[in-house]
């Protein structure tokens, strides 16, 4: 199989690893390109590759670990809340549907608190279901060390991740009720949809006005959302329902047909547990084309409209 054929076959898999490691579409694409370049150079040297899939997984993971270490230093200096770059569901790897929950914004935010090696070991073992021996080979540790990394990461994730998940239909119905309540400015109805400890995070990156700290609690989040929706309406921004990272969300489109924000909803146990709004234009650039968010209506309709 030629390198171009391998690229077409393995790129979705490679991107899924890189994106979950980095939480950045642009950085993940750079890592994938570099990994395939190195694979191509290996072929040119006539070196034997027994399993191209295993080889690209190793290259992508190690490159992503290095990139993640560098990115963490930059993110410490980031203005306000750092959130992952949103990924339109239409752009998700078709063969990675089974890992869709691990692509959610809430899960990627949770992974940010792991060390680079913990994150790599956890993703390879728990998401991609590699055996410990393969994970150890990929990340360059022994098996006992790998088990320790995975155990620490798993414990961290379990303590902070809800145990019960909503079905797709339940998520869609709750999202419709949420958008209808925010559109009407119905605070009691909105509060009823929010978990008691719900969190709202907004990422403006210092490029646009945004709250620089998370908002916690049902009443405070409901008020903040109501104000935000009113401001958007007054400035001519329309809001359209879309899927973001495999979860219900919305795209905010201005009068010039430009994407100015993406909202992602994290729904568990019949309530909204977390709400993420990405408004940093640098993180929206890859979505600011008509084909990247599906066939959005351009008539000003909002998610709660009939």
Give a written overview of the molecule.
The chain is α+β, with helices and mostly antiparallel strands and 306 residues long. The protein has 2 domains: 3-160, Butyryl-CoA Dehydrogenase, subunit A, domain 3, CATH 1.20.140.160; 168-292, Roll (Nuclear Transport Factor 2, Chain: A). 49% of the residues lie in helices and 14% in strands. It is built from 10 helices and 6 strands. It has helices at 3-22, 25-44, 52-76, 105-111, 116-127, 132-139, 143-160, 168-184, 187-193, 218-234; strands spanning 194-203, 215-216, 238-244, 247-253, 259-268, 271-278. A 6-stranded mixed sheet has the order 2-1-6-5-4-3. Helix 5 packs across helix 7 (143-160), helix 8 (168-184) packs antiparallel against helix 9 (187-193) and helix 9 (187-193) packs across helix 10 (218-234). The protein is globular, with a radius of gyration of 20 Å. The N and C termini lie far apart (51 Å). 41% of the residues are buried.
Fold blueprint:
Blueprint: H1 3-22, H2 25-44, H3 52-76, H4 105-111, H5 116-127, H6 132-139, H7 143-160, H8 168-184, H9 187-193, E1 194-203, E2 215-216, H10 218-234, E3 238-244, E4 247-253, E5 259-268, E6 271-278
Parallel strand pairs: 1-6
Antiparallel strand pairs: 1-2, 3-4, 4-5, 5-6
Helix pairs in contact: 1-2, 1-3, 2-3, 5-6, 5-7, 6-7, 8-9, 9-10
